[in-house]
Amino acid sequence: MGVLINNDAELDMLIEPSEIEDAVAITLTVEGVTRPVEVSVSFVDDEEMRGLNRTWREIDAPTDVLSFECDSPFDEDIPDDESIELGDVILAPGVIAAQAADFGTTPAEECRLMLVHGLLHLLGYDHLDDEEAAAMEAREEAILRELACHRGDDPDAVRIGPTTRHHGDE
Question: Is the pTM higher than 0.90?
Answer without folding.
Answer: yes
